[in-house]
Amino acid sequence: MPLSLRRTPVPWDRQRPTWRDARPAVIARAIERARARPSGNWYVVGASRDLRGDRPLARTVAGEEVVLWRAADGRAVGGPGICPHLGAPLRDSPVRCGTLVCHWHGLALDGGPRAGWEPLPVHDDGVLLWVRLDAAGGEPPRDTPVVPRRPDPERALTAVYVGTGTCEPQDVVANRLDPWHGAWFHPYAFVDLTVVDAPRGDADGCADDAFTVDVSFRLAGRLVVPVRAVFTAPEPRTVVMRITRGEGEGSVVETHATPLGEDERGRPRTAVVEAVLATSDRRGFAVARRAAPLLRPLMHAAAGRLWRDDLAYAERRWTMRSTGRFPG
Q1: DSSP assigned state of 89
Q2: How many CB atoms lie within 10 A of CB 143?
Q3: Number of CB atoms found within 10 A of residue 127's CB
Q4: Cβ pair 77, 69 in contact under 8 A
Q5: Distance (Å, whole) CA 8 – CA 127
Q6: By the 8 A CB rule, do 153 and 166 touch?
Q7: What do you get for the CA distance between the two ends of the chain, in Å?
Q8: Is the terminal CB of the chain with fewer CB neighbours within 10 Å at N or C?
Q9: What region, left, alpha or beta, does residue 250 occupy, with left being phi > 0 and alpha being psi -120 to 50 degrees?
Q10: For residues 278 and 251, is the Cβ–Cβ distance under 8 A?
């Protein structure tokens, strides 16, 4: 059975402190190595499932308005979210037969260049939508984004959560590269957490650049699901958690941090786009996949509860950094 019963549960305040293990230098160097990896200027915009045929998906990415929609052949296309005629917000315009029609004066965009409007590279990986912004990224461009290795989406149960916080992408990445906080900050979700391996704070190489964690997901009371998970950062704005042992082996949680721009007070805003791809070899998993429309709201609720905490972590980290008070 995948479930276990905690026979001698340790109260929250009596678990082993992890603050000595969570060395600031280890986390900081892991962030530095992640930020040094190439992204090819690709940014996650949202879930593939959210891109419908009758309306666009719009977001401000790195201060630039972008809009994506489905062309007549089903491809994801997109470009600037400002109409080149008189500046109408294309996010409010409808899609008709694969053509985005500006609701101010009827300028029709089919995804190709038109009247000064130039398309942007868009990638649909089947789970997430990406847009390439070379001016914002400033890196040598790549033809496709760095998409982590995943289970087959056709055989996995997938869900995508989107949240927004007042912080920078590195603060979201820092949260994910600090696995030691899990059982302390999220006791309703995680118990018996042990970081069994972590990169050294002075390590420059990437071969050992992973955090390996033994943890139990809490279901109810003393009923838990123990797993081993490995955290890696394949590019500057992405952290991947992969289950390598236990129930759901091969399942992946991808956390993507997308800079949005500044708010009215000049503070940075960042979107968290988290994709869960759950898989299992158990016979009953096929039934769970067929019940995906019923299960996704539960998955969204669970991710939302965790990210209420984790965005508070990221926002606090940014506040400390921006005021010169961050001790790490």
Answers
A1: B
A2: 9
A3: 21
A4: yes
A5: 40
A6: no
A7: 42
A8: N
A9: left
A10: yes
Longest dimension (CA), the chain: 69
Owner of token pair 């991947």: 240
Euclidean distance between CA atoms 116 and 218, whole angstroms: 54
Structure tokens at 192: 């018996």
Closest CA to 173 of 263, 96, 82, 235: 235
Residues 6 or more apart whose Cβ sits within 8 Å of residue 42: 123, 130, 131, 132, 137, 142, 144, 145, 146
Single out the residue of 97, 310, 86 nearest to residue 186, CA to CA: 310
Question: Digits of tens for pLDDT over the chain (328 positions)?
Answer: 567 888 888 899 999 999 999 999 999 999 999 999 999 999 999 999 999 889 999 999 999 999 999 999 999 999 999 999 999 999 999 999 999 999 999 999 999 999 999 999 999 999 999 999 999 999 999 999 999 999 998 889 999 999 999 999 999 999 999 999 999 999 999 999 999 999 975 545 545 689 999 999 998 888 899 999 999 999 999 999 999 999 999 999 999 999 999 999 999 999 999 999 999 988 778 887 888 888 899 999 999 999 999 999 999 999 999 999 999 8
Residue whose structure tokens are 């630039």: 64
In the chain, what are the helix, strand and coil shares in percent, each to the nearest 5? 25, 35, 40
- Cα(221)–Cα(36) distance, integer angstroms: 42
Q: Shortest CA distance to 206 belongs to which of 227, 181, 235, 228?
A: 235
Angle, nearest 10°, between helix axes 169-176 and 292-322? 110
Could you tell me if 107 and 80 are in contact, meaning their C-beta atoms sit under 8 angstroms apart? no
272: left (phi over 0), alpha (psi -120 to 50) or beta: beta
* CA dist 322 → 61, 171, 319 (Å): 21, 11, 5
